[in-house]
Design brief:
Chain lengths: 332, 332
DNA sequence: TTGAAAGCGCTAACAC
DNA sequence: GTGTTAGCGCTTTCAA
């Protein structure tokens, strides 16, 4: 049999389609009798609203797009995505909103996202890992749709609200700790310099070290394990007497660890190694990584809250930066 | 200004809405003149089709749901998800289908998924990590919607088509290799026994070892690192003279490694350690893990192909099991 | 408090 | 080849 429509329910309940719609949407102008009859009819017929039809008239899609702006290959290499995605799905589901995932790695992808949003198929956009200068950000903003970012969008901090950890403060914690441990020559492996984690963790590093944070002691990675390995190799070649390294992510730290070990350096005896994120890998390396924990689940929660507020019509919602925590393990 | 509709385009092009619809949908009965005028009008007005309106009449949603059946907390702990999700999004986007993600951890979740699908909001369902006996599987099957699973659904192998690696063969490869290396007392840490990876990798293990695969040498984990640690501890306590361990996943192997090291066992000298998946962690442990590579990207591709064929109306599409490859590193 | 009816934007059948 | 038109299933005035 065909799927029952509001029409069938109305017939079964002996009321009009308008009334059925009213009880469906919790309108208060419905008599108890009509409501009861309708509810019974809904149960009997096994009726399920057709969101498509509803969307057509309400102009609301009932879904949110999550845009992953990382180039294809690297997406998800970062273990941090997991928590964010899980949290987003859950929070959205509570509001009966669904999560549509899109990748925006190249121009074609960005175009697809834009068409999708312009087509009115999303009530909000959740940006992940957006790099500075991404044209999609402004394009999206022009569409006048609620947009939020998990982690700041460099250069658009004031136009796209976000929730993030205190990147700079976290990096300061780690650097200060390394200094307090008596380390004299501390190097850093940063993330990409067009991401907040790349820029701000380096800022925190130089905040503490001042002029001791010389160019020679800084290398850039791209968050991958492999980039950590090679950055560490360059660092070691240039400054063999390094006695500490702060990698801007645990994954890169794990890469650096491989290089250090291959070079015959003992960790932490010869070189102390610090990571960032407190992701799963931090526990699986040997020695386990001293790292900076960022409250990922809470960041995701807050990001969603901002988006939902925006969708509910809030004009402007402030961004938030949550405190990090230094987790000392065996690598320092 | 309001978003232009097919009506505006028709007016601008000087044709009827029907004609616009025809060029939009690639109908062949359109004169070149009309087509050109329409295309120009589309460009001029910045028109984007409203999929909602289209869905309402075509009864097609233009999206596919990916259902993650893992209990909430564990989702994504498995690094294998990443590749699957990425591949799915990409393949679907090529067909202009979008990917909606839903979690089905508890009864309420399953109900939501079912309502969504029954509501006609998905043209197909992609199952991930479904456990044996999951009631959602049969419920979904009853809805008569294309359903495919990434990895077999235990107990429903013949009703839900799937793509997977040759789980059993892969486990045989590893076990045989361990035997060939001269290991005498080989233990195994399996996955959950209601998943294909849990069951079939153990089968491969016993296939090779025969009665030497005694109960004493088998422990069950749940794919997490922690479960690998504790399973290893139980194994060691029961049989201190173990000289090899085959963990059904790299993540669990990395947990086992921690326990082995804490117990003073050298890997691989005292105990050889094999994993499964060839995920990122396999390279980040020390020593790097010997493991069984499963062609994740291809498995995901094939899964999507099956689903798309089904959506295109194919009656029955055969499941596939792709060959694995033994990757020898330093842990054996 | 309720019913009737006008669309939301699009596709597809039909007539020309 | 092309225009016209009848819905797809729902919400939301407008009257009553």
């Amino acid at each position: 049999m065909k799927r029952p429509t509001i029409h069938d329910v109305a017939a079964a309940a002996g009321v009009s389609r308008g009334t059925v719609s009213r009880v469906l949407n919790g309108d208060r102008y419905v008599s108890t009798a009509a409501r009861l009859a309708t509810e019974r009819a809904i149960a009997e017929t096994g009726y399920v609203v057709n969101r498509t039809a509803r969307s057509l008239v309400t102009q609301r899609s009932g879904s949110v797009v999550m845009v992953l702006s990382e180039p294809h290959e690297k997406i998800f290499e970062d273990p941090n995505y997991s928590t964010s995605i899980r949290t987003s799905i859950r929070r959205l589901a509570e509001r009966d909103l669904s999560l549509v995932m899109m990748i925006a790695g190249d121009a074609g992808d960005r175009d697809r996202v834009l068409r999708y949003v312009k087509g009115g198929h999303a009530d909000g956009v959740l940006l992940l890992s957006t790099h500075a200068g991404d044209p999609l950000v402004d394009a999206l903003h022009d569409v006048h749709i609620p947009v939020v970012s998990l982690g700041a969008v460099i250069g658009r901090e004031n136009v796209i609200p976000y929730a993030a950890c205190d990147e700079r403060g976290g990096a300061q914690q780690m650097t200060r700790y390394l200094v307090e441990q008596g380390r004299k020559k501390i190097a850093m492996i940063t993330g990409p310099m067009d991401t907040p984690g790349g820029i701000q963790r380096l800022e925190g590093f130089t905040d503490v070290l001042g002029r001791k944070a010389s160019k020679k002691l800084i290398e850039h990675g791209d968050w991958t394990r492999l980039s950590g390995e090679s950055a560490m190799a360059r660092l070691l070649e240039r400054s063999p007497d390094i006695d500490a390294v702060f990698a801007a992510s645990d994954v890169m730290a794990s890469g650096a660890l491989t290089t250090l070990r291959a070079a015959g350096r003992r960790v932490p005896e010869d070189v102390a190694l610090g990571g960032f994120d407190d992701s799963d890998v931090a526990m699986s390396t040997h020695p386990a990584l001293t790292t900076v924990r960022q409250p990922l689940a809470e960041i995701a929660e807050r990001t969603l809250s901002i988006l939902l507020d925006l969708i509910d019509g809030a004009e402007h919602v402030p961004s938030v930066a949550l405190p990090t925590q230094l987790i000392v393990r065996d690598s320092t």
